[in-house]
Amino acid sequence: MKKVIEGSHAVAEAARLARVEVIAAYPITPQTHIVEALAEHCANGSLNARFINVESEHSAMAAVIGASSGGARAFTASSSHGLAYMHEMLHWASAARLPIVMAEVNRALGPGWNIWTDQTDSLAQRDTGWIQLYCEDGQEALDTTLLAFRLAETLNLPVMVVLDAFFLSHTFEPIDVPDQQQVDRFLPSPTPRLRLDTAAPNAFNQLVMPTAYMEMRYNTQLAMEEAVRRFDQIEKEFKAIFNRDYGPVEAIHCEDAEIIIVTTGTVTSTCRLVLAELRARGEKVGLFKMKMFRPFPVEIIRRHLASARKIAVVDRNFSFGAGGIFAQEIRAALCNLGQHPQVFGFIAGLGGRDITPQTLTEIYNETKNDSSPAAESIWIGLNQEIVESWSN
Amino acid sequence: MKNSPFKELPLFIPHSHTSTAVNKTGSWRFFHPIYDDKTAPCSAACPLGQDIAGIEMLLSRGLLKDARRLVLNENPFPAVCGRVCFHPCEKACNRTNLDAPIAIHNLERFLGDTALSPVEMPDIAIKAARNKRVAIAGAGPAGLSAAYFLTRLGYRCEVFEANAAPGGLLRLGIPEYRLPRDILDHEIKRIENLGVTIRCKNPVTKDLLEKICQDYDALFIGSGYGRSIALKIDGGHLAYDGLEFLRRLHLGEKMSFAGKAVVLGGGNTAIDVARCLARLGASPLIVYRRRIQDMPAFEPEVEMALREGVEIKELLAPIRLQRNQSESSFAASSYTLNLQQMKISKNQIHGRARIMPDGEKTETIKVENVFVAIGAEADALWHFPATDTAGAFSLSHCKFIDRKIPLVFGGDLTNPVDSVADAIASGKQAAMVLDTYFEKGPAAVDNALAACRIGPGPALSMNAYLGENRQTRNPHVVTYNEIVTDYFQTAPRVTPSLLDANRRLESFAEIESTLADQAAKEEAARCFSCGNCNACDYCRLYCPEMAVRVEKGRRSIDMDYCKGCGVCATECPRNAMALEEEIK
User: Model ipTM?
Assistant: First the structure.
């Protein structure tokens, strides 16, 4: 049934429909609406789950790790500093192979204190062993959360569903909220392969000697590689029931494009407009939306991007001393090909600054007009008055 | 997934097939914890050694019947004591240091009142009958308690009472606004229901005494102080005996007064007389030769009297009382009272400031009535036999004399403090003394009593005497510093509703009300339960080895896994645990 709800509540609805059994969370803007809605569901009986109040995000993740170790379907949500505080436990969740699902609303890290969108928080967790899926709109956020549970439980890996702050989390859109029966068909109750059982006590995650640690890590990597294939398979099942799919990436007009703009999250929607305008003017431009960041779908990326002349990557994040993180990874994915396009890295929209159609047109023009990138990272829309004041 | 074309992924994580129970962490231990119940300061301060922490724990959990059983184990008069006892327990309460003491007397009264209904009454255990009869002289709190405890120990008891109804000072001394008579009747009835025979209008005369010595195996004498001490001043005979006034009032005589009535004295009887006079129309004035803070009357009683309009003049001693010539035919009586002003001397005697006349300063007041309540003494019949005769010994609350049959004196005759609780304590002590005497002989008495002492004072526990759980308790009295106060939040002490101050003087209606169920439970939940495990379970929750076992409500330590970290004993909020070193 279509409902006009905000992005946060789309995620909360998905968690409710997934019949999560344990939720532990600590509030932080802009994530709070998600767990607030779930807390209400728990309180009024529309969700039969245990909501554990904790004193920090570290404990929130520890609590869902405990719940998941016991075989329960567990969910949490966080943002920014909260996610950073979970860092240690994020490693634990993936190495313990627990199918936890977390909604992560991208928010800038302080200082300067800032509650608006910026991907640096989730991308700083890229090496924790979590699958990361970025969403463009409310419907995708709801659907991805449902997919995330299937994916997590199939692979025994935790999944992070990533949303832009406010542009997505607090924006109301008409969203198709599926029936419980439909969701139950797609997502049966969990059947954990390993779990703590008081009737047959055992222990997990004891000391592992150097003789086995590497194999343990390699085993996780095999699951990550498998995730690309399983995502596709699970999405087919999803489409059969809900008639919607997204793919790990979405390539629009990339086949004949000379220049391909790479986006993630809500910027993609803005770029769809720009793409239509440029194509109408006869520009040979394509749009490549990256939904899946971990695992990084290298083969798929190569397939779609290799034949273009130039790639313009829009990064709403930054790795200090290096560059935009998506640009680095795409460059790395392409560099071993004999012939590969030039990769232009653009930094835009940090700390919630708008990325407008004008911003994206400027990015396109600069990519088209320069024979090679002017710098490793090109910062778009900097206030020159401020920047120039520093050179005095 | 059933129809998935993919095979299940290999999952490689460290995982044992046994529990951590294989690791016997008990082998690391150098210390081990023990459950070590200690003594709560309230229990040590209570002349009856009541298990107050245990009672409040049961009450807070709504286990009223069990709480009543615990109360009645040590005290046959909870509804009476909850009203009239001076509650030294509350002065000792450790909670005072956090916010305010537990309202122990209100809770005792709550349990006492609810125990009055036969449905709510717990069964009182009575030991197998013995072929021994005990006579008891005086049906006051001491005599009735002796009968209660002796009956429970299997003795047949008969109480001889001079007055028309049992109760002693509870009936003839304490005014109704403090102790309604139906409450007293109920508690006495409960004692009679155990099989105690009370023979009223049956004073122990010389003849009866001889008969008792022939027909009974022992005699308890709790005849109390029946006779007031006379005022030895010029015209002292004109002052009306305060105790006699109360007695007549409580026997139902209709009296009314007007004008100023002076009450000479500073004890509880003086206060009772003054407050009764206020209700009968007089303007009472208490004249006391020492200071107000030196009055032997219990402080709350003095405060209540002042609030009801009773005046108190301190440091004035009566020197002469004269009847005035009748000024009008309406004034039945009118007196002039000469008073000597007193002052405090620097010397102290028995810890009290000594007083002396302040030169020639005197005062003269004209009053309508004069009452005297400066103390009481035993009636002529019961002069103390000498205690240095062979086979005689003194205890905290009793004197024992081995005559033809053993005699035990108790109550006001022998008590260190003239209070209802001490009277009951003397009855309990007498029961233990006589039982030990018959069972093991007089030489065993000291040890038998020492074994059931609660705390360092004279308080004795019948539970401990019967060899039940309190016998093994550590006598150490828990101090406030030993309470882990992090576990307690401040909470206001309950205040029972009081009769409107304006209404009090209109009748003898009871002033304080009994707590309601929920209020009593909440108040009981404030109790620290000093030194007494109340099953809060923090020891079990905090044990990192899950070595605390609970079976049928009893906690024990699994020594296979206790590694001696001491978290349980350190976290016990109420010092009911201890750590012992192990020498290996």
Answer: 0.86
